[in-house]
Amino acid sequence: MAFKKKKTSFVIALLFLLTTFVGMQTSGAAAGDQLVADAGGPYLGEECSSMLLNASGSYDPEGDLLTYRWNIDGSWIENGNYPYREWMWYDDFSGTITLEVSDGTDIATDTANVTISNVPPQIFSIEGSTEVDLETEFLLLVNFFDGMPDPRSQVASLDTFTVTFYWDDGSLTELSLGAEEFSASTSHMYLEEGLYQIIIAVVDGDGGEAVAEWDVVVGEIASVEAGPDGFVNEGSLFLSQGFLADTGSQSYTAFVDYYDDAGSLPLLLNPGNTFDLSHTYGDDGVYTILVTVFNDGMEYGEDTAVVTVLNVPPAFESLTISPTDSVQPGVPVELNGVFSDPGVLDLHTVTIDWGDGSSTSYAAEAGITSISGSHSYENAGDYQLVVSIADDDGDTCQASMPVVVKNPSTSMDAIKEIIASLKIPKGLKNNLLLILEKVPSMIKHHRIQATIHQLQAFIHYVEAHYGKHLPRDQARELIQAARLVIDTLRTR
User: Fold this and answer.
1) Are residues 420 and 449 both part of a single domain?
2) DSSP states along 59-91
3) What is the C-alpha separation between 165 and 133, in angstroms, rounded?
4) What is the DSSP string of 180-195?
5) φ and ψ of 341, to 5 deg
6) Residue 349 DSSP SS3
7) Inter-residue contact 459 to 479 (CB < 8 Å)
8) Percentage, residues of the chain above pLDDT 90
9) Are 178 and 235 part of one and the same domain?
10) 299 and 361, same structural domain?
11) Which domain holds residue 73?
12) In 186-203, which positions are buried (b, 16+ CB within 10 angstroms) versus exposed (e)?
């Protein structure tokens, strides 16, 4: 009986310990499984643009369905069970919004930063006259918008506006407009003739600005005619004429800009207020000539003429090689030449095809018109050297020259063949061959000077029999062949 009591007490104690441990575990789990609110962000956008607020990062550890609501600008907006909310700010804003989520029992909150930028106004149109009489009221209307001008539905901002008209005569008119007032009109009277450039500035309450211009001619002001459009080759003189319709006044001054980096230049007005345009363009392209005229220091008018300048390909002026006669293998051939291009601003690429499978190519800067190159041929033969020049607009020119490369020994064989074919006394023929007998051996052993002396002796011997036992044409052929060998030897 005593044992039974002891056993019962032990079971009770064990149950107590297990209950305590399970309670501790349950309490710890509950502490870590709290409801979480996630407001997303930070959010950046522009006024009058739709923005999606995203609370999808919120969750309940137990998986219960959540409800959402947002506090925006001090007001609560219910959003049901949907974590997303589309919202639009109608003015610039910088601050925080608050998200509240609930699972029906617990509530959690989170905040997110929001920055909404101002959108400047846009000027859509200006209505008014472009010509007005002196001392006559001139009405000008400007239409603009501020917000998002979506063609499907315009969303206007809450901005207010200041509209300023700068009349270009030292005066201005300033108007204040409220929210959603997108039209401003005012009038002005000019006291002096001239061309006036009116500046219209629309500034919203946050500093966003839109600017537009409007030109008006006041009084009896005639037009400026810059002359017809034209075509000209680069490097050629463009000539044209223009005029001012008002031929009576002598107080005009004029400037011309040919728009090729020359800048604005004074333009001489002829009697009757005509003028001459004269300019040389150094490169091809389409240029807009601007003529601007002033009357007593005030801009009177302007006009343009378009000039299309056509590219002209480069052309060879000269092309030479040295030596001019045949050359031995391994002896450099020097190429020199000059080309021209009326497009003085053109860049060029010079390519030399030596005719033996090798080539040389280099770039020539603007103003460089010389050609040079050097090349040695490995083997004897007849080669065609081709030089090509391309400008940076794709036009090219090409020229070619023959290059003869001979071995001296080969030339000596040609002389002997000429002698063998001559119908002359046998003794004379043998003497000619005898003089040349040792020449091939001298060439082989590089006895250049001795070889030249021997060939010169051969030439003297031929000259001694010129027109006697040796016909003149055949003598000239032998002398020419011998001199060619001498020239070839001297290039070594």
Assistant:
1) yes
2) B-TT-PPPEEEEEETTEEEE-TT-SEEEEE-SS
3) 19
4) T--EEEEEEE-SS-EE
5) -155, 120
6) strand
7) yes
8) 58
9) no
10) no
11) 43-117
12) bebebeebbbbebebbbb
User: 43: helix, coil or strand?
Assistant: strand
Residue of 376, 362, 374, 370 whose CA lies nearest to 335: 374
Q: Domain boundary residue among 168, 186, 218?
A: 218
Average pLDDT of the segment spanning 461-482:
85
> pLDDT category, 31, cuts 50, 70, 90?
very low
Number of domains in the chain: 6
User: What confidence score (pLDDT) does residue 10 get?
Assistant: 39
Segment (H or E) for 463: helix 448-464
Residue 437 is assigned to a structural domain of this protein: yes
Q: Are residues 338 and 371 in the same domain?
A: yes
Q: Where are the beta strands (DSSP E) in 89-223?
A: 93-102, 107-117, 122-128, 131-132, 137-145, 147-148, 155-156, 161-166, 172-177, 183-189, 194-204, 209-218
Quick check: bond before 323 cis, omega within 30? yes
Task: For residues 319 and 339, give the distance between their C-alpha atoms in angstroms, rounded to a whole number.
Answer: 9
Count the residues in the chain. Answer: 492
Decide the pairing of beta strands 107-117 and 43-46. Answer: parallel
Last residue of a domain, one of 244, 278, 310: 310
Extract the runs of DSSP E, i.e. beta strands, from 377-480: 381-391, 396-405
Q: Mind listing the pLDDT tens digit for each residue in 398-424?
A: 999 999 887 766 667 778 888 888 888
- pLDDT category at 24 given cuts 50, 70, 90 is very low
Say yes or no: 15 and 50 in one domain: no
Q: How far is CA 393 from the centre of its chain?
A: 15
Residue 324's pLDDT is what? 80
What strands, in cross-sheet order, belong to the sheet with 264-267?
230-233, 298-310, 285-295, 252-257, 264-267
Domain-embedded: residue 37: no
Contact 408, 369 (CB under 8 A): no
Our CA angle for 390, 392, 395, nearest 5°, is 45
Tell me the mean pLDDT in the region 444-452.
83
Residue type, 256: V
Give, in order, the Cα–Cα distances in Å from 351 to each of 70, 330, 363, 377. Answer: 75, 22, 9, 17
Buried b (16+ CB within 10 A) or exposed e, 383-393: bebebbbbbbb
Do 377 and 302 fall into the same domain? no
Q: Which two tokens stand for residue 340?
A: 């021209």
Least confident of 6-10, 303-307, 460-464: 6-10
